[in-house]
Amino acid sequence: MKVAFIGTGSMGSLLIEAFLRSGALHPHFIYASNRSREKADGLAKRYPGLRAVSSNVEAAAGSQIIFLCVRPLDYPLILAEIADVLDESQIVVSITSPVQIEMLEGRIPCKIAKIIPSITHSALSGASLCIYGQRILPEDRLLLEQLMSSISEPVVIDESETRIASDISSCGPAFIAFILQEWAEAAARHTGLEYHHAIRLGAEMLHGTGKLLTGGGFSPEELQRRVAVPGGVTAEGIAVLRARLQHVFSALIETTHRKFEEDLSKLDQSFTKQAGQV
Ligand SMILES: NC(=O)c1ccc[n+]([C@@H]2O[C@H](COP(=O)([O-])OP(=O)(O)OC[C@H]3O[C@@H](n4cnc5c(N)ncnc54)[C@H](OP(=O)(O)O)[C@@H]3O)[C@@H](O)[C@H]2O)c1
């Protein structure tokens, strides 16, 4: 099997490294291309057998799966570049939320999937969001979900849910890290507990809480019931959070959705411009 990664920046290299570490892919399967050659060359040096190729065409031609790991505005150029070497037997996977499956199906003959990964996959965990185009067959889904399950928990969603689901699974690690940082800074400021101790305690707590909420049989409501006994310290703390956080998550969702709409419109213009040049 030949698997291509076009774009080996942050996410492209994270996916490659996770697939290699999990044993799901052998370096010999992987063909990687990147605009600035050094990033792909660096991967080839670290993982003997992995091929850093000098063009996207070389990566895409004959690959069973092609991961497009570039930013949305880079799509029109890359699609125009590789379209001639693609055929209907290949699967193209987009990892970015604003690029719509319909846009891709209109440009290239391949089977299209959108799989939104998360930084958590570098710890072989977290949910990957799987969205399938019309040409994807049951065996293609099986192949993709087998591959993704080596580094994550694949969750199939509808394309209309992409933004909100990505907010939680892909942006979520940054949001939660920010909350932890704020909490640890306040702890250090108010009590003198060392910042790095607060972070360590918080990180272990998040790890354990995640386990309880996944394999541990707890729901968020049950977890709160078990920890926040009436009249206790935790219950008082939850009352503060309830009062202060009420509007925060609505504002967060409104903001990410507004930014997403802006990105969609820029992308639309970019696809239209590219079509005009072809
Ligand atoms: N970061 C996350 O947690 C996350 C999670 C889910 C999805 N995503 C999505 O993943 C996508 C990539 O994000 P990223 O963080 O990996 O960005 P990134 O670090 O900027 O990587 C993008 C890579 O694409 C390369 N590239 C650009 N144009 C190219 C071309 N024509 N041919 C070949 N390679 C090209 C760039 O090369 P250069 O070295 O020349 O710049 C760069 O290495 C984004 O759309 C993002 O929305 C990210």
From TrEMBL:
<dbReference type="GO" id="GO:0004735">
    <property type="term" value="F:pyrroline-5-carboxylate reductase activity"/>
</dbReference>
<comment type="pathway">
    <text>Amino-acid biosynthesis; L-proline biosynthesis; L-proline from L-glutamate 5-semialdehyde: step 1/1.</text>
</comment>
<dbReference type="InterPro" id="IPR008927">
    <property type="entry name" value="6-PGluconate_DH-like_C_sf"/>
</dbReference>
<dbReference type="InterPro" id="IPR036291">
    <property type="entry name" value="NAD(P)-bd_dom_sf"/>
</dbReference>
<dbReference type="GO" id="GO:0005737">
    <property type="term" value="C:cytoplasm"/>
</dbReference>
<protein>
    <recommendedName>
        <fullName>Pyrroline-5-carboxylate reductase</fullName>
        <ecNumber>1.5.1.2</ecNumber>
    </recommendedName>
</protein>
<keyword id="KW-0028">Amino-acid biosynthesis</keyword>
<comment type="similarity">
    <text>Belongs to the pyrroline-5-carboxylate reductase family.</text>
</comment>
<feature type="binding site">
    <location>
        <position position="56"/>
    </location>
    <ligand>
        <name>NADPH</name>
    </ligand>
</feature>
<keyword id="KW-0560">Oxidoreductase</keyword>
<dbReference type="Pfam" id="PF14748">
    <property type="entry name" value="P5CR_dimer"/>
</dbReference>
<dbReference type="GO" id="GO:0055129">
    <property type="term" value="P:L-proline biosynthetic process"/>
</dbReference>
<feature type="domain" description="Pyrroline-5-carboxylate reductase catalytic N-terminal">
    <location>
        <begin position="2"/>
        <end position="97"/>
    </location>
</feature>
<keyword id="KW-0521">NADP</keyword>
<dbReference type="InterPro" id="IPR000304">
    <property type="entry name" value="Pyrroline-COOH_reductase"/>
</dbReference>
<dbReference type="Pfam" id="PF03807">
    <property type="entry name" value="F420_oxidored"/>
</dbReference>
<keyword id="KW-0963">Cytoplasm</keyword>
<comment type="function">
    <text>Catalyzes the reduction of 1-pyrroline-5-carboxylate (PCA) to L-proline.</text>
</comment>
<feature type="binding site">
    <location>
        <begin position="6"/>
        <end position="11"/>
    </location>
    <ligand>
        <name>NADP(+)</name>
    </ligand>
</feature>
<keyword id="KW-0641">Proline biosynthesis</keyword>
<feature type="domain" description="Pyrroline-5-carboxylate reductase dimerisation">
    <location>
        <begin position="159"/>
        <end position="262"/>
    </location>
</feature>
<dbReference type="InterPro" id="IPR028939">
    <property type="entry name" value="P5C_Rdtase_cat_N"/>
</dbReference>
<dbReference type="InterPro" id="IPR029036">
    <property type="entry name" value="P5CR_dimer"/>
</dbReference>
